[in-house]
């Protein structure tokens, strides 16, 4: 695995790249990509950081694993490339935006348009083996992404963190709530959404209200 991460993050995360766990993680990922089909493609592993520079981060959305179906994962949580069928969680995200903000359901499932506005779309685990959900968990990625969240919490202020589901909420322990805003709800997956834990959370309008209060530009969701 080549750690081709954007310059603005390289400086912030330098200590992590020098740690033994990250060296072990790098070897594990390299071996997996050489011997199995894995997602996203190697050049997209750090896409979340490439699209959203550290100094631009206004909002953080935390996912769990990359999509493990062929052609789906593009390195941004919940996002897929144009032309790819929208996965169920993404459908429910767009449905909530539709009712919350009155925005028509979009054709494109590529969320890089959000990332370019300052939304860090961070999966807790940045790689996965094809068709094997969770296959790259507990190999070091979680420690790395914990460090990312801690650095944002420590070195920035007034960031809005969207924590959807139990897994993301655990990551919330790394965030200083005196400096940042946390919005929490159920996960947009059908299992959670159909039980009433997702729809109606109004996280998108709430995020924009908070950004306005802080003097920041709103996100064009």
Using brief descriptors, characterize the structure shown.
221 residues; alpha/beta; two-stranded antiparallel ribbon; 10 helices; 39% helix; 11% strand; globular
Trace the largest sheet across and list its strands. 3-2-5-6
Helix content bin: 25-40%
Shape assignment: globular
Bin the strand percentage.
Answer: 5-15%
- Beta-strand segment tally: 6
Count of separate DSSP helical elements: 10
- Compute the average pLDDT: 95
What is the chain-wise order of helices and strands? HHHEHEHHEEHEHEHH
Q: pLDDT under 50 segments (min length 5)?
A: none
The SS-based structural class is alpha/beta
Head-to-tail CA distance between termini = 32 Å
- Largest β-sheet summary: 4 strands, parallel
- Rg, nearest Å: 17 Å
Short summary:
This protein is α/β, with parallel strands linked by helices and about 220 residues long. The chain is built from 10 helices and 6 strands, in the order αααβαβααββαβαβαα. Helix content is about 40%, strand content about 10%.
């Amino acid at each position: 695995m080549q750690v081709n991460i954007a310059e603005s993050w390289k400086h912030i995360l330098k200590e992590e790249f020098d740690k033994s766990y990250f060296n072990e993680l790098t070897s594990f990922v390299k071996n997996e990509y050489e011997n199995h089909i894995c997602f996203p493609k190697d050049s997209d592993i750090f896409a979340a950081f490439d699209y959203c520079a550290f100094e631009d981060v206004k909002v953080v959305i935390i996912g769990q694993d990359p999509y493990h179906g062929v052609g789906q994962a593009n390195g941004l949580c919940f996002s897929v490339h144009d032309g790819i069928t929208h996965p169920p969680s993404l459908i429910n995200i767009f449905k909530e935006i539709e009712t919350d903000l009155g925005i028509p359901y979009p054709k494109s499932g590529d969320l890089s348009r959000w990332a370019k506005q300052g939304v860090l779309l961070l999966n807790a685990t940045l790689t996965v083996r094809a068709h094997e959900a969770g296959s790259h968990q507990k190999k070091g990625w979680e420690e790395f992404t914990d460090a990312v969240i801690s650095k944002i919490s420590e070195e920035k202020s007034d960031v809005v963190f969207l924590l959807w589901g139990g897994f993301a909420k655990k990551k919330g322990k790394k965030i200083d709530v005196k400096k940042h805003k946390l919005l929490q709800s159920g996960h947009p997956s059908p299992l959670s959404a159909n039980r009433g834990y997702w729809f109606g959370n109004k996280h998108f309008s709430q995020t924009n209200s908070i950004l306005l209060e802080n003097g920041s530009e709103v996100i064009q969701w």
